[in-house]
Amino acid sequence: MTDTFRIGLSPDFYFDAKGYFEDVVEKMFTGVPGVEYASMPPQPNKTATPEALNQFDAVVALAIRIAPESLKGVERLAVVSRWGVGFDAVNVNALTASDIMLCNTPKGVRRPVSEAILTFAFALSKRVFQLDRMTRAGKWRGDMPGLLGDIRGSVLGSVGCGNIARELFGLARPLGFRRLLACDPFVTREQVTDLGVELVDMDTVFRESDFVSVNTYLNDSTRDLVGERHFRLMKPTAYFINTARGGIVQHDALAKALKEKWIAGAGIDVFPNEPPPKDDPLFTLDNVIVAPHALAWTHAIMHDNGVETCGHVLKVARGEVPDAVVNREVLDRPGFRKKLEHYRQRATAARRG
């Protein structure tokens, strides 16, 4: 191992987040003894190569894909710190087998994503975009097809009850929602009692909610989790919101539900393939609001994600274990412990002087 702890920034930062991430990275990394950072070179098909990864002790990743073949022969890398909460682009098992830690940023995304969900809820129930188009066309109040919806007295449901959902419920409760529902096999009633959340099964969430929001990770157990059966359970006046990952929802079933008016509408910030094709069936429908996986891209999320993900990396550089470790089993692997001990000894020696 070398004496310098090298940090690589995935190259997609310089395209998808140019102008948004640089300040916080410079503030966090510049001037830290024994630490340097640089952009990774462009990667083929947005997939990291072993040659690129093996140049670094840590990689800060936006959306770059890390597959099993990305890690062949990679010995130096110790941590991948994901700038965000989802990690479906990263093969977690392959990282663990290569003695590499994966971290994410659950604290940084909670509030901006929760605000994005509520933005969809208000825009859908108040039919903001339909009213905008109607007014621009020279029509007025008497041309409205009916009254608008109310938040007060409605039911908010979530598929998943982790960090984002709990933040959402905390924001939603004072707004007057009549009930807060969630389904999550990994959460106990005691964990959400103080939020006033009712833990129910997934069918109940879809059947009884006026707004259903998806707030779970995309993995093998959640891929295509939401399908036609669930949309048929929903009230015809209900709305579906997805700011998590497109792959959790069967996209054709969603399009069918919207087109045939099984549900009133949807707010969609994520797609199975991103960017989606121009002929995506959602784009022809007037009861759906779409966004380019960016409704939560605020100043706060850029700053807070940056501080959190860079903080994880600096902890590893000191030989410490960060808070938000996804693959905690890596902590018991001798190869990873050896890397961490090397960083700890080096940091201790640097402090002594």
Question: What does the model show?
Answer:
The protein contains 13 helices and 12 strands. With 353 residues, the protein is α/β, with parallel strands linked by helices. It folds into 2 domains: 5-104 and 299-352, NAD(P)-binding Rossmann-like Domain (Rossmann fold, 3-Layer(aba) Sandwich), CATH 3.40.50.720; 109-286, Rossmann fold. The strands form 2 sheets. A 7-stranded parallel sheet has the order 8-7-6-9-10-11-12, sandwiched between helices. Strands 2-1-3-4-5 form a 5-stranded parallel sheet. Helix 2 packs parallel to helix 12, helix 5 (106-125) crosses helix 7 and helix 5 packs antiparallel against helix 12. The model has no long low-confidence stretch (mean pLDDT 95).
Strand order of the largest sheet: 8-7-6-9-10-11-12
State the order of secondary-structure elements, H for helix, E for strand.
EHHEHEEHEHHEHEHEHEHEHEEHH
Number of strands: 12
The biggest sheet amounts to: 7 strands, parallel
Classify the fold: give the CATH topology of the largest domain: Rossmann fold
Structural class: alpha/beta
Helix fraction, binned, reads 25-40%
Strand content: 5-15%
Count of helical segments?
A: 13
- Indicate the low-confidence ranges by residue numbers: none
Q: Span from first to last CA? A: 20 Å
Domain module count = 2
So what's the overall shape?
A: elongated
Specify the CATH class of the largest domain.
Alpha Beta
Any idea what the radius of gyration is? 22 Å
Query: What is the architecture of the largest domain at the second tier of CATH?
Result: 3-Layer(aba) Sandwich
**What is the averaged pLDDT score?**
95
CATH homologous superfamily of the largest domain - what is it?
Answer: NAD(P)-binding Rossmann-like Domain
